[in-house]
Amino acid sequence: MRTPFTLKTLAIAVLLGAAALGAPAAAEVRIKDIASFEGVRENQLVGYGLVVGLNGTGDRLRNAPFTEKSIEGMLERLGVGNLSGDSMKTTNTAAVMVTAMLPPFARRGATIDVVVSSLGDASSLRGGTLIVTPLSGADGEVYAVAQGPIAVAGYAAQGANASIVEGVPTVARIENGATVENEIDFAFNSLDSIRVALRVPDFTTAMRIEEAINRALGNGLATALDSGTVEVRNGAKTDLPELLARIETLTVKPDSVAKVVIDARSGTIVIGANVRIDMVAVSQGGLTVKVKENIEVSQPEPISIGGTTVVVPQTDVSVVENDAYFSLLEGDVSLQRLVDGLNAIGVGATETISILQAIKAAGALHADLEII
């Protein structure tokens, strides 16, 4: 039987632990790890194509008429002739969507990876080959062309009465499967200034980046425009790649909003270092209901006429109420210490999540509580 406890004892242990260990110091990180440079970005490409050479796992043309039309158009362009009205029964072809990311400053002839995803009812793309597929950007221009054998990580197997599927066999990749044909015009060296864009906007972090750049490059070159942007002027008209290389290796201590993230499905709790709770009284308890089914069999007498065997279920229901202790949690307590203490004394993830939600509802939790 577990010994009863009070959260007041836990609060004392939490305060002692926080005083002994101290608050963790924020780590310095490079600017390139928390921000990006405006204009230096990837671009999404997309295309529609056909995968051939499948071993009977392609689209069924009756259910995917767009696959049949695509096959007809491809064969006509290759000089096979007009196939309209002819009935196709091939199952070795699948219609796919091809996606890729065009890196910044990609030059003609460079290769990029592509992802191939089935569009119809194909069961697997394993062993197939992608036919030449133009990849277009958001402006409709073609920037790359993809083609080649595809690699599938998942697999599917099926018998007469059973089947097994591992992974997703209808999604595949082609390493270096597309060749860049057109470049995106970007006069990088002609810029008079560059902007550093924070991935997580924060005024404190933006000011620290401004101070770090001004210390390294000279006062007045960097200015924080808002919580997510720091502008750096190229006053000496130096080489911009060299300037960016100097900026991205500077280190700062990023700041963040206090936040608690809870995944209720898995019981995962992630707590930021700046989370604090005020004085609050907490009581936690609950009910345990046990239902036990006992099956008894009633047999008729040995010489009885018309008697039948009857199964009689017997149900026992019991309710156990756990003792709840109401105590006062005092002081500016680190929530990490509180959760560590709750875990140490056996409070499960579900109970911990309930306690955190109740403390937030009481207004004593100074952090954003995000449930995913």
From TrEMBL:
Q: Does the keyword Oxidoreductase apply?
A: no
**GO cellular component labels:** bacterial-type flagellum basal body, distal rod, P ring; outer membrane-bounded periplasmic space
Q: What span is annotated as the signal peptide, if there is one?
A: 1-25
Localization, per the record, is: Bacterial flagellum basal body
State where it is primarily located: other
- Keyword Membrane on this protein? no
Kindly give the InterPro entries that the UniProt entry links to this protein: Flag_FlgI
Domain of life of the source: Bacteria
Q: Give UniProt keywords alphabetically.
A: Bacterial flagellum, Cell projection, Cilium, Flagellum, Periplasm, Signal
GO function terms (MF aspect): structural molecule activity
- Which terms under GO biological process does the entry name? bacterial-type flagellum-dependent cell motility
Protein's job: Assembles around the rod to form the L-ring and probably protects the motor/basal body from shearing forces during rotation.
Query: What quaternary arrangement does the UniProt entry report?
Result: The basal body constitutes a major portion of the flagellar organelle and consists of four rings (L,P,S, and M) mounted on a central rod.
Q: Which family does it belong to?
A: Belongs to the FlgI family.
PANTHER family (UniProt xref): FLAGELLAR P-RING PERIPLASMIC PROTEIN FLGI, FLAGELLAR P-RING PROTEIN
Would you tell me the protein name for this molecule? Flagellar P-ring protein
Q: Which organism is it from?
A: Profundibacterium mesophilum KAUST100406-0324
- Gene (UniProt): flgI
